[in-house]
Amino acid sequence: MKILIVNGPNLNLLGSRQPQIYGNESMEQYLDFLKECFKDVEIEYFQSNHEGDIIDELHRVGYDNEEYQGIILNAGAYTHTSLAIADAIAAIKLPVVEVHISNVAAREPIRHTSLITPVCRGVIAGFGMDSYRLAIESLV
Ligand code: DQA
C-alpha cells in the first residue's frame, strides 16, 4: 500500500517556521516517525511552494494510477485561495484527505474558508504534526 503526502507553500520550513504554531519538528524528522508507525505503508513525500507543481503532482498520482491508496494534502495557504487545486482534486480518482497542523477554524477569519474541503474525503486539523498520522489512519 502506497500513500502520498503533499505539502504546499512554506511547509518546507517546518521546524523553524513560527514554532509556536507549527512546532519544532521538521517534516523529515516527522516522516521517520510516520514510517515507524506504518511499517506496511509506503509513504512518499512531495513538497512545493508552487501551485502548478502541486497540481501536476496530484494529476500524476491521482489519475489513472493504480499504485496509490490515497493522498494526504496540506495545501498551506493555497487551501484558502486555490480554485485550481480544488479542481484538480475533483478531477482525480484517488481520495484526498485535507490536513492542517494548526486548528485553522480557531485562527484568523481568512483561514476559516477552505476551497478544497468540498472535494476532499475529509479534514483533519489542529492536532499538530499528529494530524498527518491521523489522516493516514483514515486511509489504511
Ligand atoms: C496550515 C494552515 C494554513 O492556513 C497556513 O497557510 C499554512 C499551514 C496548517 O497546516 O495549519 O501554511 O495549512
Describe this structure in words.
The structure is a single chain. Helix content is 33%, strand content 19%. It has helices spanning 19-22, 27-37, 51-62, 83-91, 130-139; strands at 2-7, 42-47, 70-74, 96-100, 122-125. The chain starts with a strand and ends with a helix. With 140 residues, it is of the alpha/beta class. It is globular, with a radius of gyration of 14 Å. It is built from five helices and five strands. β3, α4 and β4 (96-100) form a beta-alpha-beta unit. Bound molecules: 1,3,4-trihydroxy-5-OXO-cyclohexanecarboxylic acid. The site of 1,3,4-trihydroxy-5-OXO-cyclohexanecarboxylic acid has 10 residues, from loops.
Q: Order the strands across the largest sheet as they lie in space.
A: 2-1-3-4-5
| Strand portion | 15-25%
Helix content: 25-40%
Radius of gyration: 14 Å
Return the average pLDDT rounded to an integer. 96
Give me the secondary-structure category: alpha/beta
Order of H and E elements: EHHEHEHEEH
Sheet with the most strands, sense and barrel status: 5 strands, parallel
List low-confidence stretches: none
Give the tally of β-strands.
Answer: 5
Shape: globular
| Unique ligands | 1,3,4-trihydroxy-5-OXO-cyclohexanecarboxylic acid
Oligomer: single chain
Count of helices?
A: 5
N→C terminal distance: 8 Å
